[in-house]
Amino acid sequence: MPGNEGHSRRSFLKLAGVSVAAAGVGAGSTYEAFAAPGETQNGWTQYESPTSKTLLGVVQTTEGPYAVGGSGDVLARRPDGWELVLDRGPTVQSNGLRAVGVTDDGRNVWFSGGSGVVGQYDVVDERLTDYSAPGGKTSTWEGIAVTGSAGSETVHLTNGSGEYLKGTKNAQGGVDWDTAIKPGGGSTATAVSFIDGTTGYICDTNGKVYETTDGGDSWSTIGIGSGGAGVALYDIAPVSPSLVFVSGGNGYIYRYDGTRWTPEKPGTNAIYSVDHDGATGLASGSGGVVYEYGADGWSEVQTPTTKAFRGCALDTSGAFPDVAVGSSGSVVERGDYTKPLPNTLAISTTSTEETGYRLVVDGAVEQGADVESADALTSNLGTPDVVTGTVGGTDATDTYSYSGEVLDFEITSGAPANVDLTLNGSPTEIKELRDRPWREVASPTGKTLYAAVQSSEGPFAVGAGGDVLARRPDGWEKVVEFGPLAKSNTLTCAGVSDDGRDVWFAGGSGVIGQYDAVDDTLTNYSAPKGKTSTWEGIAVTGTTDDDAVHLVNGSGEYLRGTRQPSGAMEWSDVVKPGGGSSAKGISFLNRSTGYIVDTNSKVYETTDGGDSWTTIGIPGGSAGLYDVDAQAEDRIVVTAGDGTLYRYNGAVWTKLYAGGKSLFAVDLQGDTGYAVGSSGALYELRENGWEADDSPVESGLRGVALSDTETIPDVAVGASGKIVERRSYVAPLTGFDAMPTDPDGDGRYEDLTGDGTFGQADAQALYDLLDDPLVQANTPAYDFNGDGTVDVSDVQKLNSWL
Q1: Pairing mode, strands 468-472 and 475-480
Q2: pTM of the entire structure?
C-alpha cells in the first residue's frame, strides 16, 4: 500500500457504505455532558471538560472524538459537548489510561495503560469489553495501535520494557495474543502506529525508531541516525513508508522520507503527540501550544490555555473538530461538530384541539422547522434536554432531532388519543417512550423477602419465616406461611418452571417446596439426600410434571432433582463444582447448559445438565458473587458484593461499575434487565449500558423479576417485606368479563369495560370502582391525570377526553 493520504492515523478510514447508529450515554454510571465553549484563540476554542484528570490520548471515531486519561477516564465528544462515559477504566480499578487507538471503520476504540489494562469500547453499542493483562502481562502499556475493522481487528501494544505484543480478535469475541517480543534494547516504547495491516512503526525513549513490514512479526531499526535522536521520542505518525513523523523532546519533530531523517524544531519544549494525514499535520506539547503543519512546515500556535497537551487528533471526515487534550482534563478544538443528530421524533395530530406534550432526552435536541416559536427547548449543561410544546389546529406536526435516548414522553394537556408519534420514520406508541417509575406497594409481610419470580399467574416472592407471597389482581397475598415444613425456615431462593406453573423455593434446614400457581397447592420436597444445609440458589428447567430442579448450597454443593410421573423426585448425586465456597446463584439456559456463581468470585458452567462443571471465570475476581442470569452462552451477567456487575461475551469477562452498593440479584429480559441491591439500589440495562434508576425505597432489595407483558408488573423485593413494582396487574374489573385495553397506546387503560373502545361507560365504570382494590392496587393503569393516585379527578380527566 503506497500510502494513506487523507487518513490520519488517529482517525478512521472513510469506508464506503458504513452506517453507524446513535450513541448513548455510557456503561454503568450516570454521566454528564458539558458543551460550554470558552475562549477562542488562533482558531482554537477551549471546552469545559467533565474530568480534572490528565488526558493522555485522543482519537476520532464515527461518533466523534474519544479521549482517555488518568484514573481510567474515557471521554466522548457528543453533539452537545464532552461526556464522561467510563470513569474507572476497563478493570474498575482506576488504572490510568495512557494510549488510545481506533479500528479502521471507526467503531471500536481501544485503550491501554497501567497494570496491564487493555479495553475496547464499541462507540455504536456503547459497550465496554475488558482484555486486560494480555499474555499475563501487567506492566504499563505505553502505546497502542489498531488495524482492521471492528470484530476482526488486530491490536498492537508496547510497554515500558520496550516489548511489543499483538493480538487478533477471534470469532468468539476474545483475542488471540502472540508472544511478546522486543524490537529494540529495552527502552520504553512510547508509541506504536501502523499504516495498514503489515507496515508499522515504534519509537522509544532512546531516540530509536523501528519498522515492521510483516505485521509485527519482525522489526528493524531505521533510525534516528546511528545513535538515536539524542532526545526521547514520544509519538509517531506514519502516513506512508516515505512519509513518517516523530515527535520528541526539546521541541523536535523528525520527518522520514523512507531513506533519511530530517529534524525540525518548531518549539523548545517536549512535543508529546503528533498526527498527520498527508497534507495537514497537528502536534501538541507544553504550555497550551499546538503545532500546525502547512506549506512552510511546522509552526507554533498558542491556544486559550497554558496546560500541557498530551494528545491530539485530526478529523478527516469533515464532521468533527480537530482536538488536543492534556493536563487537568483540558480540551481545545478547532472546527465544528457538524454531524446531524441521528434520531428524529415527529409529534403530529389531525385534531383541531390543542394537545400539550413534554419530551425528555439525555442527549442533544434540535427543533425542526415545523416547531412553533411558543414551543420551548430547555438545554442545561449536565442535565437532560427538556422540550415542552403543543400540537393541534394549524400546528399539525412538531419534529425534533436528537442524540442519545428518550427518557420520557408524556401528554400534559388534551387527549393522548389525539397524538401520533413517528420515531425514525416508524410509528410508535406513547408507552414505548414513557418513563415507567417504580413505586412501593402494600405488602402482607414485614419479614425480609429474598427472591421473586414471574409465574403464569403473576409474580411470587419468598422470604423469612417461610413466607410465600403471590401477586393477585387486587394486590399481594400471603399464600404460604411458615414454609413447606411449617417450621418457619427462611426461604432464600425461588425458581419457576418453563411454563410458569410450578413455583419452586428453597432455604434453611434443607427446605424445598413446590407451589402450583394454577391449583394453589403446596408440595414438600425438603431434605433431599438427607441434605439439611441452607439452599442458597435454585433454578428450574422443563415444564409442569417433568421439571428438573437445580440447587446449590452454602457448602458449594450442587444437587439436581427430576420430577417423576408419580410426582416423586429422583435426586442425583451431590457434586461440588468448585472448592467449597458458598454457591449463591444458579441459572440454566435449558436442560443442558447452566451456570453457578460463588463467594470466591468463581463461575462454573455445565453443558451436560449438571453432571460435570468447568470453571469459566472470573480471572482476577476479588468480590463475592451473588447472582447470575444467562440468556445465551455469550450473554451472561453476574452481580457482586462490591457493587459491580460482570458481563460475559462467551470469551472474556468485563467488570462494570454500578455505584458501589452490593448487588444481590439480576434478571434479564430481552434487551433490557435489572439488578438490585443494598440501600434500595435499582440498576437498569438500557441501550447504552447499566444506569441507576430512581428507587422509592432506601432499604435493601434482594430479588427482582421482570415481566414479559404490559399487563403484569415487574417486581423487586427486599428488607422488611418491601415490594416495589413497575406497571400494573391488569385484569377484568369487578362487574366486567373482558380485560381493560389501552386504545391510545399511552400505557394507561382508558377502556375499563374491555369492549375495545373508549366512551362514557368507561368514565362511569371508573367512578363506580374508585374504591375497588382492583383499581387502587394498580394505580399506574388508571392514573389518567398522572398525579400518582386514582380518585375523582381521574374520572374528570376521562370525561374531558370524551
Answers
A1: antiparallel
A2: 0.91
